[in-house]
Amino acid sequence: SFPLVQIRDLSVTYNTRLGPTSAVDKISFDIRRGEIMGLVGESGCGKSTLGKALLRMIMPPGYISGGQIIFNGENVMKFDEKRLRDYRGRQVSMIFQDPMTSLNPVQTVEQHLEEAIQVHEAETKTPYIIKRIQTLIERLGIMQSRLDSYPHQLSGGMRQRVMVGLGLVLNAGLIIADEATTSLDVIVEAKLVDQLREIRDEFGVSILAITHNIALVAEIADRVAVMYAGNLVELGDVNRIFDAPLHPYTQGLLASVPTTEINAKKELYKMPGEPPNLARPPSGCRFHPRCPAAMPICSRYRPALEEVAPGHWVHCWLYQDHPEKVEKTIKVA
Ligand code: SF4
Ligand code: MG
């Protein structure tokens, strides 16, 4: 069957004092049914903006400046307000770093769950839904005794589980988790990661896990999309990306974290330079000022996102034929 989400040439622009700033620049990828897609990159690379764009929740002075989002075969860009509310409320569920802001402080866990159901009366109070809530509460490790608790009485990890539960009660097809585990301690984080995987297995939901933490992606994701300065630079199966990253940025990112087995014994790599100001992005490949493999063509033309092996996409001149690249290779030789 076709993918749950098809993102095509999606661009988001912010009007700033320095002029239009392209925070997300012509990004294309799919989120398949029942997969966990990791979206990774440094802070400010546009990954959260992309997550919000999927819900059409970009606020002025930002706007979606191009491209398409197809959800379950429907064009999200064409949704009217009513359809959009349903899409945001029921079909896609978003979990942020601090769920306190999304939970109602004066409602108990049980009231949250009940309310979520009432909003969608059509499907309510059927034995199926009741069974679903019970299964969820068990699966998520929310104790029966916690149902009467208010959000502030719960731990951060428990609040995240309630948020996940709310999404699943509504039968969401997609959960977008934006740095959802970042404020949790390591053990609670590991537990939530396990639970997200179990939930995916059990309910067949798709999860877009947005994070700066590449080690976390290795644990949770089936596929990985790497973003740099508003661009998608590499996309592929998690094992492939971790075993044989092709894009110089991905290579640098992996070499700079101590948690992958590959470089456990090696000295950590320090990526030179800083991410660019997106109001004045570097010409051509946006990574060229920091790239150890940059060639003359890199600052002049933007590479395409090319499929270099089945399912493995890379946005880099190293893997594309271009007359200037050939010329340079000849000169060097
Ligand atoms: Fe480096 Fe050039 Fe590839 Fe960009 S296109 S990542 S500058 S080699
Ligand atoms: Mg963010």
Automatic annotation (TrEMBL):
Coarse class of the protein's main subcellular location: membrane
Name of the protein this chain belongs to: Oligopeptide/dipeptide ABC transporter, ATP-binding protein, C-terminal domain
Pfam families: ABC_tran (PF00005), oligo_HPY (PF08352)
Keyword terms, alphabetized: ATP-binding, Cell inner membrane, Cell membrane, Membrane, Nucleotide-binding, Translocase, Transport
Naturally occurring in which organism (per UniProt): Longilinea arvoryzae
Membrane topology qualifier: Peripheral membrane protein
InterPro entries per the UniProt record, alphabetical: AAA+_ATPase, ABC_Ni/Peptide_Import, ABC_transporter-like_ATP-bd, ABC_transporter-like_CS, Oligopep_ABC_C, P-loop_NTPase
Cited CDD domains: ABC_NikE_OppD_transporters
Gene Ontology MF terms in the entry: ATP binding; ATP hydrolysis activity
Location of this chain's protein in the cell: Cell membrane
Gene3D superfamilies from the UniProt entry: P-loop containing nucleotide triphosphate hydrolases (3.40.50.300)
